From TrEMBL:
CDD domains: MDR1. One of its GO terms (molecular function) is oxidoreductase activity. Keywords: Lyase, Oxidoreductase. This is Bifunctional protein: zinc-containing alcohol dehydrogenase quinone oxidoreductase ( NADPH:quinone reductase) Similar to arginate lyase. It comes from uncultured Rubrobacteraceae bacterium. Its EC number is 1.1.1.-.
Length: 337
């Protein structure tokens, strides 16, 4: 599947790299050195990579306040891509759980490395690949699946019988969240546009609201938990749709504010959380191994199936990242390496 420059030299590989911040055309397929692994790392022969809004953000260098982390003038790490699935090629001396040949999926770290033939990944961020998934499906899981899982279980403490609303139910995180909330026994309402109503119903939502026709914050129905992946309503409008002690995870937000992105909303949520009856819980996802394993179990039990919007060859990664950056992917976008 790989369409790449002649990566014929031993020790080099094809990878999607960038030398400056900007739009998807800063991403180039080039030969670079294969990554070297540390003692606790695994060299993964990458078969597929998942695409996330985070890849678009680092590519763009947005928000500006994150540049000390990304790299001030250009990304510290040139290779983009966070989510990975592939085969173990080699292991560091301290690695105990994996061996060459194992099929794995996981998280390369916030600063990238997955859009390449090989990636160096911490042992603690890699789990055995779900046996019933293709590499593309497995690569679609880590970041979006972890956000959905941690939002519902850790921050929402969602229990059977509760009413849950997922705003942005047809996107990367939303398609996992609808299925995980159903697996937890919740009554699930998904919010999406007209073209995605059937999809959201097909993955298990009990009720679907087409946001082009109805505004859920203006209806009478109240929810115990809302996961907002979009940030198209104010916090006070979202709170109006909660039960008296309901929980809101304000998760989404674009880059209209190029300096701080949704930082103001996150601070506002933390402040409100102290003074109102509702719980408002913005959070940063963390790549916990035990959570990757829980996702694998849910997937192998048939309770969660990744929804793949499109797959692209590695050479078309700029199009793949642009599609996700457009904010209207249906489920996940993956890159085949
Ligand atoms: N907390 C964390 O650590 C963390 C980690 C990763 C990502 N995130 C954030 O989570 C957010 C969602 O990520 P994602 O991967 O799910 O993004 P995504 O795949 O781009 O999904 C966005 C979804 O939003 C929907 N949407 C757009 N406008 C809408 C509206 N007015 N009402 C309802 N839905 C609307 C789109 O559906 P239609 O096409 O139907 O409009 C699309 O399915 C992003 O802002 C991302 O930055 C947070």
């Amino acid at each position: 599947m790989l369409t790449k420059p002649n990566s014929v030299h031993q020790g080099t590989m094809g990878a999607i790299v960038q030398d400056e911040y900007g739009s998807p055309d800063v991403l180039e397929l080039r030969d670079v050195d294969k990554p070297k692994i540390e003692v606790d790392q695994i060299l993964v022969h990458v078969h597929a990579a998942g695409v996330n809004p985070a890849d678009w953000a680092v590519m763009s260098g947005l928000p500006y306040i994150a540049r000390p982390v990304y790299g001030l003038r250009k990304p510290k790490k040139a290779v983009r891509g966070t989510d990975v699935a592939g085969t173990v090629e080699a292991v560091g001396a301290g690695v105990t759980r994996m061996q060459p040949g194992d099929e794995v999926f996981g998280w390369c770290g916030g600063l990238g490395g997955a859009f390449a033939e090989y990636a160096a990944v911490s042992e603690n961020a890699l789990a055995p690949k779900p046996a019933n998934l293709t590499f593309e499906q497995a690569a679609a899981v880590p970041m979006a699946g972890l956000v959905a899982h941690q939002a519902l279980r850790d921050h929402g403490k969602v229990r059977a019988g509760q009413k849950v609303l997922i705003n942005g139910a047809s996107g990367g995180i939303g398609t996992f969240a609808v299925q995980i909330a159903k697996a937890l026994g919740a009554e699930v309402t998904g919010v999406c546009s007209t073209r995605n109503v059937d999809l959201v119903r097909a993955i298990g939502a009990d009720h679907v609201i087409d946001y082009t026709r109805e505004d859920f914050t203006r209806k009478d129905r109240r929810y115990d938990f809302i996961l907002d992946n979009v940030a198209n309503h104010s916090l006070s409008d979202l709170r109006r749709a909660l039960t008296l002690t309901g929980t809101l995870v304000p998760n989404g937000g674009g880059f209209d504010n190029r300096w701080f992105a949704n930082g103001g909303r996150v601070v506002g949520a933390h402040v409100l959380d102290r003074f109102v009856g509702h719980r408002l819980r913005p959070f940063l996802v963390s790549p916990k191994l035990e959570d990757l394993v829980t996702l694998k179990e849910l997937i192998e039990a048939g309770k969660v199936t990744p929804v793949i919007d499109r797959t692209y060859p590695l050479s078309e990664t700029p199009e793949a990242v642009g599609r996700v950056g457009g904010g209207h992917a249906r489920g996940k976008v993956a890159v085949t390496v």
